[in-house]
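Dear Dr. H.,

I hope your travels went smoothly. While you were away I took the liberty of generating a structure for the chain from your last submission, since the lab meeting agenda had it listed for discussion. I wanted you to have the full record in hand beforehand rather than looking at slides cold. The sequence, exactly as received, is reproduced here:
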Amino acid sequence: MGKAVGIDLGTTNSVVAVMEGGKPTVVIEGSRLTPSVVAFTATGERLIGQMARRQAVLNPENTIYSAKRFIGRRYSEVLSEIRNVPYKVVAGPNDAVRFLIMGKQHSPEEVSSLVLRRLADDAAKYLGEKVTDAVITVPAYFNDAQRQATKDAGAIAGLNLLRIINEPTAASLAYGLDKKKNETILVFDLGGTFDVSILDVGDGVFEVRSTAGDTHLGGDDFDKLLVDLMAEDFLRNRGIDLRKDRQALQRLTEAAEKAKIELSSMAETTVALPFITADASGPKHFEMKITRAKFDEITAGLVERCVAPVKQALSDAGMSERDIDEVILVGGSTRIPAVQALVRRLTGGKEPNQSVNPDEVVAVGAAFQAGVLAGEVQGVVLLEVTHSPWASRPSAAS
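The corresponding predicted structure, in token form, is as follows:
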């Protein structure tokens, strides 16, 4: 029997972790994070991860990212998402989402399977042994179709899927490894998608009390507002809408993500994109200074959209913010200072726990659960008992 791994199949980046010496360890094969990007080249080659991301600017129509936003969904459900990507999304059989690449349709499951296979291969190289089994995580409010599509992606990748578990539950597993006393934890997960869960953790039992979320909110939306800010500035000053040029749009999107990250630790940043486009008078360059205050202003609506799911989760659990012992942040966008300020406001001034890496904690928890199911870890019971229409059916495992 091969080794079991835990995989966080993310919207932007994915992570794989394994149990080593009784502890979960993130696999490092060049980088701890693997971009969830797949590119199809003119020679028929398929690039995955960092190599795919590097060539995205020159090959935007054939480079798929954020496939997780489309997996298991109908074409009619993703019209808003389609407007935000440079590649072609079309309706397939029974209104299923398909990516049109060089005249051929590819499903989100197929694209996601390529990322999963790369992660499994990286883990096998790291371990020096074959990887056959996996626990894969999904957002807590993924519906049955999205969960089944994720399972299908695992099967296409040649993996024996031990279990699909919710991302907040995986985070609680990672956080609660050494916890001996009972605590109530609020997991605030703002990555490629957004969900919030309230869990009781203690004595080897992890019980999800409630889960809520927003299926159309994530880090990409923050990037999109920055893209619009930059594009409108260029349109106003140069009379050219860069969003109509797929290559320019891809460069703006990458610059927006970089600026967002920098503004989490800096008061301002400058975006400089030489030769962004050209007209009859010659090449045009883009340069713009963006302050954190401006970023906070244009994204305030997105931050406020996090309020209702948090309040809903507290209500469904029959709790108030005073009942929360710990707050865990999951997902790269929780590094945004305005988001952290909102979390403190919604939890009675509690300082979020910073002891877990928000990019890696879900994969770490998935690896722990893989260890439980493979018999490497004893004495842990995972209870997913929920009271929210967003969440999966109750399940238990030991």
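Two observations you may find useful: Residues 327 and 352 are 5 Å apart (CA to CA). DSSP finds eleven helices and 20 strands in the chain.

With kind regards,
E. W.
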